[in-house]
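During the second half of the funding period, the structural biology subgroup turned its attention to how the target accommodates small molecules. The most pressing case was phosphoenolpyruvate, which had performed well in the primary screen but for which no bound structure existed. We therefore specified the complex as follows and requested a full 3D prediction, including the ligand pose.
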Amino acid sequence: MRTPIIAGNWKMYKTIGEAVELVKALLGGLDASLVKDREVLVCPPYTALYAVRPLLVGTAISLGAQDVHPEPQGAYTSAIAPGMLVDVGCSAVIIGHSERRQYFGETDASVNKKIGAALGVGLRPIVCVGELKAERDAGQAEAVVGGQLAGGLAGLSAEQMLKLVIAYEPVWAIGTGDTATPADAQAMHAFIRSRLQAQFGAEVAEAVRIQYGGSVKPDNVDELMAQPDIDGALVGGAALKADSFLRIVHFR
Ligand code: PEP
């Protein structure tokens, strides 16, 4: 059995004060009996990590970041090192989000380096893959996602792979309100699992959690989470309000 994992990606939203308010509202609304069998993670902007950390210690919500630099330290103006994320209380980090790929030149090779660096300090990488609309329309969705997996996960051992979470996020569904149908999402998740099986073996493929991301909302989460290969959600817009994120976290 794979423990479902629901993560909120706050992107470049929330001041420190707003982040603290949102975390307090989430903690206040969390139904402990519903979340005992699932993992919940919030990924605020870097500037809010230190402020929200003390609120989350000992709660059912863990802390993650939205990106990381692969080097342990150095002259990399503006970048944040893996050890710094651990220092501020993060247990996970999103790597290779499509917005990083699209606007900041993230490549499968840089994703691969960042995964290694994150694992090196004990952070759980949440590795994002997903195709553009034009690629899906051209029948290339599996080829694109397969390529991202091959490049991003190159050289990892089975033991390392077990520590990762994969997030399938079709780019055309992110922030658009245009969710993949549960059947289409399930088909891609099954494909991803088959690729994991080919590279790491059946046992690892069965154990690795694959989140769906792309306009997950309170009104579609239950159907998505009912799919056999969907093990969680990476949530953007709906993670910015306590009531909508809580409803997603409390999926049935
Ligand atoms: C995301 O940021 O990863 C995401 C899926 O955003 P949204 O839920 O807004 O589509």
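Two results from this model are relevant to the next phase. The longest helix spans residues 182-200. The longest strand covers residues 124-129.
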